[in-house]
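Tutorial handout. Part one gives the primary structure; part two gives the three-dimensional structure as tokens.
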Amino acid sequence: MNVPTAHMCQAPADVAGASSHRGGDVLALLFSRSSVAPKTLNTPGPSAEELMQMVSAAMAAPDHEGLRPWRFILIEGPGRLQLSQAFAQIRKKANPRLSSQELARSWRKTMRAPTLIGVAARLVRDHPKVPLHEQYVSIGAAIYGLMLACHALGYGAMVLSGKRARDSLVHSLLELCADEEMIGFISMGTPTKPIHPKTRPLPSEYLRVWRGTDGAR
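Part two.
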């Protein structure tokens, strides 16, 4: 896929004008998002233009000092096969008794969804104003923005991580810099089943009201 490089950080027109939409429409979109398992995703995946829209949405994440401590890596072609082989190799090293069938399942999981995007963190350690936990929060917000845009465009997605994603073999294969670390991988595609949001707790359970202490004036 030839990803266009022009206007990478410019919000697309329909996203930039989202504030003019009715609030109910935007909230309905937010409430209806849910992760979709890669095994239920099929072709087509997002186009190059749609991927750029998703990355534009990610760039709107809260970002103290404008560090943009995230990197997105579109993995396709031979790279997809090489990554799946690396995951199988990592599993085999961790458990030499794994059967060929189990390794094949691991390989298929990486190849399932039509689109796979790696998420890497490029942290600025010892920053005088932005501690590491803020940078991680910003990365999470960028991922969420990308996934919301993915949902808005009619696709399903899920973020997967784990020890294998952070293995040095994967780090080397994806040619990450010394100061980068893998966060995980986002699988994307067209849902083959209706997306039903999970049952979620009442928001009131997660909102606390605080009006100060008794001694406050």
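Part three, for discussion. Helices lie at 13-16, 23-32, 48-58, 78-94, 100-111, 132-152, 168-173. The chain has one domain: 35-189.
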